[in-house]
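Colleagues,

Please find the record for the two-part complex below.
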Amino acid sequence: MKKVLIPLSVVPILLLLAYGFWTDPRFVPSPLIEKPAPLFALSLFDGEPLSLDGLRGKVVVVNFWASWCFPACYEEAPVLEGAWRTYKDRDVVVVGVNVQDTEKAAREFMERFQFTFPNGPDPGGKISIDYGVYGIPETFVLDKEGRIAHKHVGAVTADVLSAQIEGLLRRAPVADDNRQEHERGA
Amino acid sequence: MTAQLGNIALWIGLALALYGVLAAVLGHRRQSGVLLESGYSAVLAHCALVTIALLSLEYALITSDFSIEYVAFNSSENYSIGYKIAGLWGALEGSLLLWAWMQAVLAAQVVLMYRRKHRDFIPYVSAVLMGISAFFLLVLLIPANPFEQHFPVPLEGRGLNPLLEDTSMLIHPLLLYSGYVGFTVPYAFAMAALITGRLTEEWLYITRRWAVTAWVFLTSGIIYGGWWSYHVLGWGGYWAWDPVENASFMPWLVGTAYIHSVMTQEKRGMLKVWNLTLITLTFALVIFGTFLTRSGILNSVHAFTQGAVGYFFLAFLAVILLSTVTLLTYRADQLRTEGTVDSFLSRESAFLFNNLLLITFCFTVFLGTIFPLLAEAIRGVKVSVGEPYFNYVAAPIALGLLFLMGVGPVIPWRGGSWGSLRRNLLGPGIVGLAAGCVTFVFGIRGPWVVATYALAVFVSAIVVQEYYRGIRARRKTAGEGPLQALGQLFIRNRRRYGGFIIHLGVALLAVGIASSSAFQREEEKMLKRGEVLEAGSYQVRFDRLTGSEGPTHVKVHGVFTIFNDNHEVGQMTPALRFYEKRQEPIAEVDYWIGFQEDLYVILGSFDREGGWAVVKVLVNPMVSWIWIGGAVMVLGTLIAMLPSRLLSARSAGEKP
């Protein structure tokens, strides 16, 4: 009887390995979720400056993209522009951060998709490092208090984006002491 | 057409493998020579058919037949012939076909070599080998078919992953696969021994050379992989404890334990169950590694594309583990040990400790590798186990092994007297301690590093001492000259003296690993034109950017002038390669390799106009000792494996 039981000792290992099929090792929750978003300032392609600090009180979509990121950035470009046009009058801002790109290629890309939302380069990749960007594209949705509410890896879809934005717009208005705490933290 | 030929060859090959299993088992049961012979013929025919399948895929790769999906995804019209051929092992399906082919060739070789000699063994050996082959062909036919066709036919192939475009691609995978596949032969013999109950040392003597051959391929494959990673991947390291690296290291550890432990069984008749366990575990770990690489259950830089292959490999692993453990349990009573460990200070006990450490090492690596899975299964949290864990647990175990490597070979079997121990160990011990003190005096403080230096010198001193004594004894007794005496040592006891050289290689390797991990310097900075970055005694000045065009990519070089202590010593030109079909650029590092240290320059991002560039400079001490150590290990293994017939013929001829 005992002899039958010994071989069964390998079963737990096999079960553990089988469990691996139900997990996705590439899905890693971002430690930045619910944390204050790292602040940054962009000098936009149209020459204007943009500071994240100045967008407090609005829902902000920060998208990291590059003209060489094919096809994902090309898929999501119309989605971002669409979200901007739909929500810009409802205290929502879409900000494009152009990563490791040449100005010429970036401008061509923006022209191709008729971008009207603010876009600026990230020289030296500092902003992407602050946001822990692992691969392009990645999209962060920030709530009105400037906290990262959602991170999306890969091409973002219209469904995900509008669900996230609507959810944050419906949230209760900003509590004052919350904001102060954030400012002290930042 | 090629695709159909390949598929038909695989189907018939599968049928033959299954027939091979049946014919061998039934033939042995019924003692039917005809059936057995037909089974062996099936093994040979199986080999021929898998060869046809392999050649079909190679033909498609060489002629850039993009109607076959595998070719379209992993090759390119522009490739040189070398990379076209190497496309075979560039991705999942092809690499499994290569594996199946190596497997088939070894099975054929085993049958041709041994069927007349070991009549009771070979039926089961060939049945086990054909069973394994059948599994691989099944995988090739169902979830990972390399002959899948692609419509519409693309005009140009996608090419290999650019990281694989390196001459190492022509070598490293072949070495590693030869090592992996090589262990199936000793496994098959061990299984045959368990199935037939013929548990004498017969299987062990036959498979010793197979195991050592597989071991040396695995060893050189792992070290070559380190070299590849070091000079291509551009992060300045050679080993990262990535799951796939661990997957190759675990069978190496257990295989190393096995080739040491068999000596105990040969000399003392001990550790029989243990040796069978070790060799079967080695093979199980090879399959486990293949499963890890191909199932995508763990995150790794080496991961192949995923698919149903993972399920097949897990099922196969289950069959192997369950059948082996069942057989071992069933036969355990017959495997009782003849000898016992007489003394704590004996060769047997040194081997036992060596085994214990190697297995502990393997277990800690295993635990670290699957821990993320375990943590998620039990607690639902995502964790990753990184280098610090592995380095932390590996260092003391590796030092223990280094120590035993010195002591083990000079303690006699059954135990030695204190006097003989003192005679053998005192000199090298003093030399080792002195070396430790010298490194300390020279300002090296890390306890692990000092200990590694001391032990490496200790091991080397023992090797020198044993060679010296061996040569002196032969000069006295046989009156030979020093070189002739050295030759005679190799001829008369090549395992021992080859083994010493392997140990010397490990000592060099250990020094290289300890120095490079303890004293690596790394500097990274964004430089404007003409600006200088300091790293150690070097100054690196950014001069300009230049561009060039390759067949598959555009390359941007950064030109840097290097100074050592403010003397100009030359120029380095690290580059970034931009591929049309890939999103991210690939870094091409520039490096100078030296005996003392390597200078290693990596180009990061840069400004199109050439105004600035981000550069990373690494000064890696003594990394070349790792490659030299690896080469010495291979040399030692070759000496240990010199065919005895050749040697005795030559020495007979030399005698007057």
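The first strand of chain B starts at residue 521 and ends at 528.

Comments are welcome before we finalize the supplementary table.
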